[in-house]
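Bench notes, afternoon.
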Amino acid sequence: MRLYLPAEWTSAPERLHKAGVPEDVSFETKRDIALGLLARALGWGVRPRLFLADSGYGNEVEFREELTRRGLPYIVGIRGDSVLWPPGFAPPPIPPKSEGMSGPARTRYRYGDAKPIAAQKLAADLPPTAWKSVNWGEGAKGRKRSRFAALRIRIAHGYSVGLAPGDEQWLLCEWPKNEKQPTKFHLSTLPASISLKQLVRLTKLRWRVERDYQELKAEVGLDHFEGRTWRGFHHHATLCAVAHGFLALRRALFPPEPSALDAAHGSARASAAPASANRHLPALQQGHQLQSSACGPAPVRWTG
């Protein structure tokens, strides 16, 4: 994990010194921090998995391209004003050089009168039959359900200067109940063969991340730190992370007894078989040792 320090901090040496920030810490964007953490995890031999992020990361073309270069499929949020080429769009051929012209081959496209469309408008113009109601999870008030539409599109970033259209990928649009128009949009490089239900389920895994973050604050006090030093914060955050990990592991091994409300809703928790009281926590793998450091791992600062 890493702590994000804004530029006003990293450009103030006296402030950094008073807080005990190490001298080698410099400003990094959240995108660079995320890519650095990914590189570290992949360097440890972690198997590439599906990457999920909100529009704060997903709207950055370079960030998405870097994920693809590293072999990571993704589902990332984008803003409604992101421009796209609609389904069925075929990129025009690059015009050949005129006879007798020298120099390198042309690399710019000419789109003529073709114009991309914003994700928001593309979704709003879909016929009613394009929208499907999907159950995607269980909550305190029962099943979570919304309307979704999925389209195969191409990103139109840089079309005005002749850049090539992006590779075909998914655009997942969500139109929540009681909203006048679609409000959430995601891009995904998952295979074209994936079902809508599966695409929605994987997209909504971010809900688990948000819930974990709320639990870190509410259950183990991540946001209760009131100190002013780098070391103090990292000690606090590390202990919170360990406590939350323990609670998550215990919950997985020993699920709580189903309540009457769970049973009434027919939730997955109510139907789960009770865990054996004799199950033990898994031991560390051979060669693994508990380690500590002066500062501990630095946490990511999630800002939505």
